[in-house]
Amino acid sequence: MEGPNKRVKVSDLASSNSVIVKTSWTQLYESILKPIESDEDAMEKIALECFSINLSLSPEDLVKLKGLIHATRLKYNDVMYHSFKHGLHVLVNCAKILYEHQKYIDDIDNTNNKFTQCQIYATIFAALIHDIEHLGVFNSTLISNRHELAILYNDQSVAEMRSLNIGLNYLYDFDILNNLSENELKDFRKLVIDLVLSTDIVDPIRYNTIHLFEFKIIYVFYRSLYYNNNTEKKSNTGSLMTILKLSDVGSSTQDKNSAFTWTQRFYHEQYAAHKNYNQSRFDLSIVFTIILHFYLEIYYFYRNGIEKFYTYQVEYLEQHVYDLVLKIRDLAVDNFISLEFADEIFLNLNNNIDVWKSNGGELCENWKKQLL
Questions:
Q1: Whole-structure pTM value
Q2: Within the chain, where are the H helices?
Q3: C-alpha span between 110 and 190 (Å, rounded)
Q4: Residue 5: pLDDT band by 50, 70, 90 thresholds?
Q5: Which of 2, 147, 234, 336 could be 142's S-S partner, Cβ–Cβ 3.0 to 4.6 Å?
Q6: Does domain 10-371 have CATH number 3.90.1010.10?
Q7: How far apart are CA 150 and CA 180, in angstroms?
């Protein structure tokens, strides 16, 4: 990577022929990724393009990245949702947003708002590695079942810690940042760690067992802790976190077929998790620290959660994803990205929420029949 703290014009990166650049946000999965899901070489090629359209890279850099991408693909587990297909989807989403950011900043000639090459590299790298070796189950399930990874990582963001452990070692295995100073490398690692850990959201099992009023109290409380200094939310790190987290749930803000495809995969993955893990065994101390009198409701959900998937998906879209989309619109207001691009994301989410409310129950019933 040339000039890690520099800001470059994307027009200088020979990206005009990129399918990612040419394709709208709405059609990223349906047009680019869905047709190549059985072609591993094509998937790795698209992954490399995510770096090349955003970064000033030498031929040697590209060779190293090819090796890193191949090794990363092999480390993703073949689960229904958190596979390399998902990792690549998040990577492409992230690369698209970062490209649109750079293009918009170039167009309005406001380099003060532009992320540095090092920040962009760290964010794309974080997107690539963020779900390496994901087991297809929630962190809470790993913790309640005393999984060896939960013990290894002290019950803290278990899946994300595992991905970071493997992914950060690739920085050295493939020597992709050999031109960074010690301090620059330290900053790069810290940003990657912050970004990947930020993708650890409250999982839908615990998230949806609390009534809406109580959830909002807890949600606002934890957000106030997370943004305990008034610079975090407006900082580049905070903005990059928003970009990665929105990329992680990006299918919900794209074409409805993309949204339903990934929702079905998530449904199937959680069905498998219920079969393979004892979902009724959980840490009561966590529940009691939140609110005691919801014990029976929580126990009921652990036994019957798959049947309630439709309702929980509505709440997930209307609360978690909606909050991220509003933050993307805030970035547009702050001149980090075009309002037109942010509005495309916003309108797609609203449309998908409406369609899910109308058809989601029937879809869940059909998906359940396929699994029985």
A1: 0.85
A2: 19-22, 40-52, 59-75, 84-108, 117-129, 139-144, 148-152, 158-173, 182-198, 204-207, 212-226, 236-248, 256-276, 284-290, 295-304, 309-316, 322-333, 339-371
A3: 26
A4: low
A5: 147
A6: no
A7: 33
